[in-house]
Amino acid sequence: MLRPFLNVGSETDFKLLAAWLIGCFHPRGPYPILILTGEQGGAKSTTAKVLRSLIDPANPLGRSSPQTEQDLVIVAKHNHVLAFDNLSNIKPAIADALCRISTGGGFGTRNLHTDSEEVLFDATRPCLLNGIPDLANRPDLADRAIIVT
């Protein structure tokens, strides 16, 4: 029933999407990072929105890339699926943070208005990225990714 709503290149790609989708319902990770790639107008954003809305219908369904690891952690704190839309590239620090979030990892930062107190955040979340260029150009990100055209 889902197949007509997803513009994918092959039945193999559809099976990979379905497997990722089912895996997102597991209560804890690790989760592979789904990367949707294709030419302009190929329905990458629409496919991402359909998939995300089935799992985590939070608004917005797709957002721009976070600028810092702290921004990424805030998104992870408030969403089950981290969906980033229409990416041109991924900063190395963000790619590393996405890898940690997909397999389970933490982030620590100084507590606001203090000099020595730390706030810790630990999360494992499914990630969904889409864009025209090859977004998995870092080996650690590529190892954790399912890439679908």
Break the fold down into its secondary structure elements and pairings.
Layout: H1 11-23, E1 33-37, H2 44-55, H3 69-78, E2 82-84, H4 92-103, E3 105-110, E4 118-123, E5 127-131, H5 139-143, E6 145-148
Parallel strand pairs: 1-5, 1-6, 2-5
Antiparallel strand pairs: 3-4
Question: Could you characterize the architecture of this molecule?
Answer:
The protein is of the alpha/beta class and 149 residues long. It has a single domain (10-148), classed as P-loop containing nucleotide triphosphate hydrolases (Rossmann fold). Helices cover 35% and strands 19% of the residues. The chain contains five helices and six strands. A four-stranded parallel beta sheet has the order 2-5-1-6, with helices on both faces. The longest helix has 13 residues, at 11-23. It is globular and about 55 Å long.
